[in-house]
Amino acid sequence: MKYWIFVLCMFVGVAAFCADQVKEIPATTNSKQALESYQKGLYYLDVGRGLQGRDEFLKAVKADPTFSHAYFYLSIAALSPEEFKESLDLAEKNIQGKSEGEKILVEINRTFLGNDAAKRLQLAQTLVQKYPQAPRAWLRLGFMQGSINHHEDARKSFEKAMELDPKLIGVPVALVNSYLFNDPRNFDKAKHFVQQCSQLQPKEAKFYELMGDVDRARKDLVSARDAYTKALQMDPSLDVARLKKGHINSFLGNYDEARADYDKAIAATEKVNKTGYANFRALTYLHAGQPKVAMQELQKLVDSADSYGLPKEQSDGAKLGILNNELLIALNQNWVDDAQKVLNQIQAITEESIKRVNDPSYARRQNANLALLAGQVAARKKDYRTAQSKAEEDRKLVESDSSPRKLEGYYGLLATIELLQGNYAKAVDLFKKADQTIIYVQYQYGLALEGAGDTQESAKIFGEVANYNFNLVDFALARNDARVKRYAKS
Q1: Mean per-residue pLDDT for 451-455?
Q2: What pLDDT does 484 receive?
């Protein structure tokens, strides 16, 4: 975005006045202060500094409580489903007199409440039709295409945005993440675009952190650790870089060093991150082959989450993240009593969130997810009839969604039911329809392939799982076993 043009706009009082000149979606406000904060917030979101971006958007709407465009971006930076919906409600409340583009953006984000992917894509396409020269319109289209796994189309949209504004830093950042995490992945291209980020903003420490992520994906863990160290040298307040150093030490088996890195990151970060950061410290025990200790550490985090004085919805969100990790550990270890206890906690917190959000589409989606989790627990209890019933409950709840991905969880549960019963061929077919962007689903797919006798393909899957190198509970659970299976078949 060409910020100097916005400065010119300030002198005439209304940012939207210059929309034709900047060829961007208008940011309609009469407040110079609100516009300045909005611009800073955009930069922070673009480079991956979400909390700082949120702070700036809060300043923007404080300076101009009618600033719909800032509320839209506040919804993107939201720290809870409640804040997401509240931000969209305020954006819509103040949308009268605003541009068509701003109205479309709010509608786009509303589709996430009900998982209306078809409408989301149609709205994003309408946005670029109305603003064909607006780089952020193309960037938004790319994100929406990526949300339904149309990653090649998303990359073309990002490249169009780059063509329109080669200096818009959010575009190469989006391309780095696309090539890192989405199929077909290409780590060489990811490295190219992260280098481009550094050329555009050489003083931005986040891009050394991002280079560390690329090095992780390229299996160069030592270089990744060096990149995170460089990021910290440039910006000692970048606590997430220290967190990621902890990940590398976890992968390298340096558990004491990893915990020391995590302790420093936890101490340095804001209250809203502390429970989430501590989660990774607990995962060191999974990497070390001590799942029971990991479970105990995670439950301590759940029990202490309210002690940070956060709003209820934020502390509940932190609890849910930890509890979902606990549940997967319990399921993986076949600790069915523990799994049921954790599920009960998840259900109680989710029901409170449903009441607070007070949106029927959100409630339906959350109940669908609860059905899937209950089905996973039932399957581990060998109560396959109940597990199947829960799968069908999920299917009925999501069948009105227009998303092509709406049944991925349904097929994942059905596949798990077949896998646990030793029906490997059926499980393979079902896992092909499940969400294989989830590393644990990919791992289970490998197990099904192995059981079905396809050792070549299972070895390939286990190799991908073993070298994923991004520290989710899925990876911490599956990595060591996947490595053993991968190299046993080599």
Answers
A1: 97
A2: 85
3-state secondary structure the chain: CCHHHHHHHHHHCCHHHHHHHHCCCCCCCCCHHHHHHHHHHHHHHHHCCHHHHHHHHHHHHHHCCCCHHHHHHHHHCCCCHHHHHHHHHHHHHCCCCCCHHHHHHHHHHHHHHHCCHHHHHHHHHHHHHHCCCCHHHHHHHHHHHHHCCCHHHHHHHHHHHHHHCCCCCHHHHHHHHHHHHCCCCCHHHHHHHHHHHHHHCCCCCHHHHHHHHHHHHCCCHHHHHHHHHHHHHHCCCCHHHHHHHHHHHHHCCCHHHHHHHHHHHHHHCCHHHHHHHHHHHHHHHHHCCCHHHHHHHHHHHHHHHHHHCCCHHHHHHHHHHHHHHHHHHHHHHCCHHHHHHHHHHHHHHHHHHHHHHCCHHHHHHHHHHHHHHHHHHHHHCCCHHHHHHHHHHHHHHHCCCCCCCCCHHHHHHHHHHHHHCCCHHHHHHHHCCCCCCCHHHHHHHHHHHHHCCCHHHHHHHHHHHHCCCCCCHHHHHHHHHHHHHHHHCC
Q: 119: Cβ–Cβ under 8 A, 6 or more apart, which residues?
A: 107, 111, 402
pLDDT tens column, 130-187? 999 999 999 999 999 999 999 999 999 999 999 999 999 999 999 999 999 999 999 9
Token pair 């209250």: residue: 271
Is 222 in contact with 206 (CB distance < 8 Å)? no
pLDDT for 5 beyond 90: no
What pLDDT sits at residue 488? Answer: 55
Give 304's Cβ-side CA count (13 Å radius): 13
pLDDT, averaged across the chain? 94
- Can you give the pTM of this predicted structure? 0.91
Q: What is the pLDDT of residues 14-48, one digit of tens each?
A: 344 333 444 899 999 999 999 999 999 999 999 99
Structure-block tokens of residue 265: 């990151």
Cβ neighbours of residue 76 closer than 8 Å, sequence gap 6 or more: 45, 109
- The Cα angle at residue 103 between residues 46 and 38, in degrees rounded to 5: 35
CA distances in angstroms from 212 to 228, 254, 287, 328, 361, listed in the order given: 6, 18, 20, 28, 38
Average pLDDT in the 352-367 region? Answer: 97
CB atoms closer than 10 angstroms to residue 275: 25
Q: What is the mean pLDDT of residues 76-93?
A: 98
